[in-house]
Amino acid sequence: MRLVLGIESSCDETAAAVVGEDRRILSNIVLSQLEDHRAYGGVVPEIAARAHLDHIERVVHEAMQTAGVSFGDLAGVAATTGPGLIGGVIVGATVAKSLAMVHSKPFLAVNHLEGHALTCRLTDDVPFPFLLLLVSGGHSQFLAVADVGAYTRLGGTLDDAVGEAFDKTAKMLGLGFPGGPAVEQAALTGDAARFALPRPLVGRPGADLSLSGLKTAVRLAAEKLPAPVSGQDLSDLAASFQAAVGDVLADRLKNALATFRATHPSGAHVVIAGGVAANKALRARLQSTVTEHGLTLVAPPLKLCTDNGAMIAWAGLEHLRRGESHGLDSPCRPRWPLDEAA
């Protein structure tokens, strides 16, 4: 059985994992930098890069020790080489390349987004093709996934990513950072029908989405409430915002599904991946839409929705099984779309 070490350092998690070809996760160590960035209300790239540099050696060592394997047992070393905060990407990729060179192992340059995209094959062995909704702090897009490396973008955000909209809404409401979990928690006791917020682009053709207008509507609604927004007002506004996002995603998903089924009639799965996939309310909203269309919704376990090394190791294995590896001169890229032709 082939084993791959995966290293992830594209944003504010320093992570390493060892994954087997039989889909077993032998270790998955994630060190969050949340407290390093909380005071700034967002991720500071320079702080993130320095934190990766400080901790990555220990995280990799712990991943190998937890897995109970040596570097000689590995079939390859994978690392995120983009997209992401370039300082952090360089730290992780350099460590992985060094380990691959010293131990004479193949190096596998992994697209961070592909790591999210293929996690469903690690956890649920989802067959190709499938429709992917990738939603995170920096990315929101619908993709038809025909195979490893074969991605067709069907639509995406015209402005804010879904996770970005959650973070900015949380900041406006004084909920702190990270915003996604904070808004979701506040919405639990809220009345989602209290505020009549817009659903941008709903009912229009295509699978693109827009959230900047919704975000502005939340700000205007908040300005009409006693400051600071708190108590039931806060819960109701958070719930109304979250419901609006759910309606937008569900409507856009219907259009993406129509295009996907026309071009990939054998596809039976819709996959939601990325950090926002951890939101239970959005999962439930999308589940009903997918069920209506007779398909199966797959979402990774919550711990594999956010950035982690296991998804990078698995994506590396997917390439390795196809006889692919990459040179030690593989570039680190701040931008790297899955569908480069889109």
- Low-confidence segments, ≥5 residues, pLDDT <50? none
Biggest beta-sheet profile: 5 strands, mixed
Question: How large is the count of helical segments?
Answer: 10
Relative helix content: 40-55%
Layout of secondary structure:
Layout: E1 3-8, E2 13-20, E3 25-32, H1 34-37, H2 45-67, E4 76-82, H3 86-102, E5 107-111, H4 112-123, E6 130-135, E7 140-147, E8 150-156, H5 162-172, H6 179-187, H7 212-223, H8 231-263, E9 269-273, H9 280-292, E10 296-298, H10 309-320
Parallel strand pairs: 1-4, 4-5, 6-9, 9-10
Antiparallel strand pairs: 1-2, 2-3, 6-7, 7-8
Helix pairs in contact: 2-3, 4-10, 5-6, 5-7, 5-8, 6-8, 7-8, 8-9
Main features:
globular, 18% strand, single chain, 342 residues, five-stranded mixed beta sheet, alpha/beta, 10 strands
Describe this structure in words.
The radius of gyration is 20 Å and the shape is globular. The protein is an alpha/beta fold. It has helices spanning 34-37, 45-67, 86-102, 112-123, 162-172, 179-187, 212-223, 231-263, 280-292, 309-320; strands spanning 3-8, 13-20, 25-32, 76-82, 107-111, 130-135, 140-147, 150-156, 269-273, 296-298.
Briefly characterize the structure.
The chain has 342 residues and is an alpha/beta fold. The chain has helices spanning 34-37, 45-67, 86-102, 112-123, 162-172, 179-187, 212-223, 231-263, 280-292, 309-320; strands at residues 3-8, 13-20, 25-32, 76-82, 107-111, 130-135, 140-147, 150-156, 269-273, 296-298.
